[in-house]
Amino acid sequence: MALKERDEFSGQMTTGHEWNGIKELNTPVPRLLWFFLISMVLFGLVWTLLMPSWPGVSGYFRGLLGSDQHEAVRQSMVEAETERSVWTARLVDEDFDSLAGDDAIMTVVRQTGPMLFGDNCAGCHGVEAKGNLGYPNIAEAPMMWGDDADTIAETIRVGINAVHPETRYAQMLAFGRDQMLSGADINLLVDYLEDLGGRGTMSADDREIAASLFADNCASCHGDDAMGMTDTGAPNLTDAFWTHGGDRSSIRRSIYNGRQVTMPSWEGRLSEAQIRLLTLYVMDMRTATP
Ligand code: HEC
Ligand code: HEC
Description:
- The protein has about 290 residues and is mainly α.
- The chain has eleven helices and four strands; from the N terminus they run ββαββαααααααααα.
- A two-stranded antiparallel sheet has the order 1-2. A two-stranded antiparallel sheet has the order 3-4.
- The site of one heme C has 25 residues, from α9 and α10.
- One heme C (HEC) binds next to α5, α6 and α11.
C-alpha cells in the first residue's frame, strides 16, 4: 500500500492504490454532474408533491395541484356515451321512415356505417356491398327477401340458413344431381333463363317446352315470371345480378348441384341499434346507387 501523493501530470491526488507501478488517480465527480443529479432529485420531489403520486393504503396522494387525468378521461367518456345513447335510443325506438328522413341520424349512419360494415360484413359482401362470388350484391341487386327496411333488419338479425331459431331458410334444389331433371332439360332451362335475360336465341318450340319445365319445377320458388319471390328468398333470374355466376356453366351448375349458402345471424353479436344502423346504411347505399 503506497501513500497518497499528488500526481505530477494531472495535479490530482492518487487514492494510494497501486498495482505493479500503476497508481489510481482520485478524480472527483465533475461539479456539473452533481448539479444535475441534485436538481433532478429536487425536481422529482417537488413534482411528486404537486401531482398525484405516492401510493397509500387506501388510495394515493392526490397532489397539491389536484390534477386528475383519470377523472378528465372519465368525464369525456361519459359525455361521449350520453351523446351516443341519445341516438342509440332513437335508433331503437323510432321507425325507419322517420330515421331515414332525419339528417342528424343519417350523418351518424354515414360516419359509423362504413366502419361497422367493414368490420362485420365487407368480408363477404365486399367493401362497397356489391358482392363476391357466392355472396350477393346488396347495394344494387333486388333483395331476395324484400327491400323494405324492416325486412332487411330482420334478415340481418336472424340470418339465412344460420344457427338461429328463427333463421330464414332458403335452398336451391340439386335438380341434376338428385335426378329430378335430365341433362337435356337442364340445358333447355339454361337457354330459357338466358332468353328471359334478353340474351337467348331459342326456337319457339324449345321455348314452350322450357317454359313448362320452369312452371312445373321452378315457379313455385322463383315465381311464374322468374322474377323471384320474397317468400322463398329465391332470386330474380331475369336480371343481371347473379350470386353464383351468370355465365352458362355457372347457371347450369346452380341448377344441377343446387345452392345453399349461409348468411350469419347477427343477433347477440351486434346490438339492436347497430343492426338498425347497418340497415339504414345498406338502404342508404341502395338509394345512392342509380
Ligand atoms: C360469412 C359471410 C357473410 C357475412 C359476414 C355477412 N353476410 Fe350477408 N349474406 C351472406 C350470404 C351468403 C347471403 C345470401 C344468402 C342466400 O342467398 O340465401 C347474405 C344475404 C344478406 C342479405 C339479404 C340479401 C337479400 O337479397 O335479401 C342482407 C341484407 C345481408 N346479407 C346483410 C349483411 C350485413 C349487414 C352483414 C354484416 C352485419 C352481413 N350481411 C354479413 C353472407 C354473409
Ligand atoms: C325450393 C325452392 C326453389 C326451387 C324449386 C328452385 N329454386 Fe332456384 N333458387 C332457390 C333459392 C333459395 C336460390 C338462392 C340460393 C342461394 O343464393 O344460395 C336459388 C338460386 C337459383 C339460381 C342461382 C341464382 C344466382 O343468383 O346465382 C339459379 C340459376 C336457379 N335458382 C335456377 C332455378 C331453376 C332453373 C329452377 C327450376 C328447375 C329452380 N331454380 C328451382 C330456390 C329454388
